[in-house]
Amino acid sequence: MDQLRAMRTFVQIASDGSLTAAARSLNCSLPAVVRLLADLESHLGVRLLNRTTRRLSLTAEGQHYLEQTRTILSAIDESEAVLRAGQIEPGGTLRITAPVQFGQRFVAPAVTGFVRRYPAVKCQLELNDRNVDLLQEGLDVGVRIGPLPDSTLVARQVGHVRRMVVAAPVYLKHQGVPFHPRDLQQGKAVLAHRAMRSWRFREKGKTFTVPVDGNLEFNQIAPAIEACVAGMGFGMFLSYQVLEELSSGTLVRVLDDFELPVRPVNVIYPHAGLLPARTRLFVDWLCHALDGVTSMPG
Q: Taking the model in full, what pTM does it have?
């Protein structure tokens, strides 16, 4: 699906009030308009329009999506106009926030690349695992993992992560591969912090917890991962945290049938209509840099 085209089509349908009128405005066929709308709703997993034989009306989700989509399309059009006009490259200061390890692995390289491309921009990256208030703390762009209760911000989802159990091949050879989360109680767990003494899983649509224990506990993720690689026990981490280890085979994913649903990863920023060019360009840059990285492993 061409998502940008689908978004423009949806906005045109909402503006014209009918599929036929939108097809005329867009100079395309009615079946093409119907197909793009259906593809967009399928992609989003929600119905955007209530359709009867006489009229179209926006659903609550459609109204919310329309407002956000209009803002995003306006920002894209403005950014392209600036670049086509050959105006002076952006300058000024950008303040960005991201979770610590995710920021170190993925956001920091993107920030460095952005400053290399736009040397007149000064970027300040603040890594913090708490959900900071962008507006209150004067931040321009953030990366957030998980649900977004704050609807005052614009969010662009760039992928997802999931929590998973992993272990080193040498440990699995010694301990055996677990077939159910309860089997973890027969082995040792490497704990990343005290709050993780019970691990959550999902089976047949229901969530349950399994208490775990071990003789290694850390207050940071990195040494816990290293201990797991060394064969000291099972560990539970977010997928991006062990991406390299899974790719190299030093850690193996287990119990994937019992994992909780994925958690979205979003690039967030204040209302797009108020953004300077440097922020618009950086948001596009960051979304492109993160695209796909946060969708693996699935």
A: 0.62
Question: How far apart, in whole angstroms, are the C-alpha atoms of residue 197 and residue 211?
Answer: 6
Phi and psi at residue 141, in whole multiples of 5°? -140, 145
- pLDDT tens for 155-184 read 888 888 899 999 999 999 999 999 999 999
CA distances to 98, 269, 273 from 89, in Å: 25, 21, 19
132, with CB counted inside 10 A (0-12, 13-18, 19+), is: middle
Residue from 105, 184, 127, 156 nearest 268 by CA: 156
CB 218 within 8 A of CB 191: yes
Locate 85 and state its tokens.
């006009």
d(CA 272, CA 269): 7
Instruction: Name the residue type at position 125.
Output: L
Query: Cα–Cα distance between 220 and 54 in angstroms, integer?
Result: 59
CA distance 18 to 286: 36
Q: Which of the four pLDDT bands, split at 50, 70 and 90, describes residue 298?
A: very low
CB-based contacts of 181, cutoff 8 Å, min separation 6: 165, 199, 201, 208, 210, 255, 258
Question: What tens digit of pLDDT does each residue of 126-143 get?
Answer: 998 888 888 777 788 999
241/250 Cα distance (integer angstroms):
13
Q: How far apart are CA 262 and CA 240, in angstroms?
A: 12
Distance between CA atoms of residues 143 and 93, nearest Å: 18
CA pair distance 55, 57, nearest whole angstrom: 7
